[in-house]
Predict the structure.
Amino acid sequence: MIRRLTTDDIVRADELFAIAFEQPMERRPVEPESSRFHRWAAFDDETEEMMSTLTVTDFSIRFDGNACKMGGVGGVATLPQYRRRGGIRGCFQTMLPELYADGYDFSYLYPFSTAYYRKFGYECCVQKLHAAVHLGLLTPSRTDGTLRLLEGGNPMTDAIRTIDAAWEAQYNMMVQHQAEDYQWTGKQDPAVKQEFTYVYFSADGTPKAYTSFTPSDQSDGRNLICKRFCFTDKEGFAGLMGLFKSMSSDHMLVKFMLPAVTAMQYLLPEWSLGAVTWSIQPAGMVRAVNVESVLKKAKYAGDGSLILQIQDPQIKENDRTFSIRFAAGRAVSVEETQSEPDAVLSIAAFSALIAGVCDFADAAEWMNGLKVQRPTDALSQIFYRKPMMITDSF
């Protein structure tokens, strides 16, 4: 049996997760959960014991300039004695149609296995550029701004929200943060917790960058590990690098994540001699929950029309053929049709391509779940590489 959980089920769901992942849980009084959280679980038909569970958290994300409702999947767990019994599969098969009915556009998750979640229509999405910068070889550009340490009595919440908003407007899949997401700014106690958050302001007082980091003894030295790292322009980035340079006598490297935008490598002009190492790291999988809604909100390149057949075994409303007309970069009409499609896509392939993982020419050559039946320029006008980033975990 699969069903949504009630308040009475919360403690057992938390226990299940703690047992499955061997992570101690804290016993505390049961309180009503935020309406942002939705849980499903599978129960043994004979014993009625909870076997598997997952949680979906509501987020508003950015997609092609529009706000979209996204369900972030987390807390996926099964008790060891019930593994390979289909509990999680049943949860996804029940949950996905319900997300469609509840008005979600996308779902997102961080997989333990990409092959496993492809079975439910998810595909690899955001990639991040991981940088490890040798502080002794760092030569940041000079800036005229100031850096301020965030402490409990000086949260600087508005400044941090302003900086976040720049990325939220620019990148697909970025969560649009609400006021409740910034409670952490009022809980900073760097002297005790040894987590340091600095905000960089330009000479005219404009907030342009911030970072949160902790020192860590690692195999390659005593390093600065950034939990948060966000900037609005080159000056903001240089301001943070100036901060890290000032700490070079005590630390070997600073490590942080950037959007996987090739041009950002030029922010650090010295990349040889061990000054900086780069690596691309995957950051989750996306699934379109409502294909029609996503097609209506997508940004197109110019004018055109095409017919797409989407194959979605979990959500029947998506499992059909769509006729799309667009002009001036936006959809004019998205309608069901019985006409022969220009291309046939699995829901996983569609989800990744509409999010902007790559240009269509690359997808046609390398991606599974995609079959072109009538070549048309319109395919490259709907599926093309877009800026993507996500900084939240769930």
